Amino acid sequence: QVHVVESGGGLVQAGGSLRLSCAASGRSLSGYTMGWFRQAPGKEREFVAADSWSGSGEYKYDADSVKGRFTISRDNTKKTVYLQMNSLKPEDTAIYYCTADTKAAGYGSTWYDKVSEYALWGQGTQVTVSS
Predict the structure, then answer these.
(1) Nearest in space to 85 (alpha carbons), one of 14, 20, 4
(2) Count of CB atoms within 10 A of residue 42's CB?
(3) Where are the beta strands (DSSP E) in the chain?
(4) Distance CA 117, CA 102 (A)
(5) Facing residues of 60 across strands?
(6) I need a surface site. Which of 9, 18, 50, 88 has the fewest CB within 10 A?
(7) How much is the pLDDT for 119?
(8) Dist. CA 32–CA 11, nearest whole Å
(9) Is there a contact between 83 and 19 (Cβ–Cβ < 8 Å)?
(10) Distance between CA atoms of 54 and 60, rounded to whole angstroms?
(11) How confident is the model at residue 107 (pLDDT cuts 50, 70, 90)?
């Protein structure tokens, strides 16, 4: 079983950058699809990015709202997933959650952006972007 813990959140001015980390305990991350979601006050939790690593290769996905600004990456040897966030906007303010599931999200997958499809969740880390 894998447990995940997020870190790296904080307060940043618009246009700035932050890098979130998601450290996993337990077995290797190989074979897991790792995702980042976020939830702003009064809003539903929404997909940000996902990275799937399996025998068929590595696949990455991101939401249109963060495309070109956020990048997901992983270091399986460190059992850590990262979310590099650049050109931050006030609307990026939210609690960011790391999540994991054993299902692969290869080419043509349609489940990776759905909250209900992930089995493991961290406690979240707050990101606040001031204008």
Answers:
(1) 20
(2) 5
(3) 3-7, 10-13, 18-25, 33-39, 46-54, 57-62, 70-75, 80-85, 94-101, 120-121, 125-130
(4) 10
(5) 51
(6) 9
(7) 92
(8) 30
(9) yes
(10) 12
(11) confident
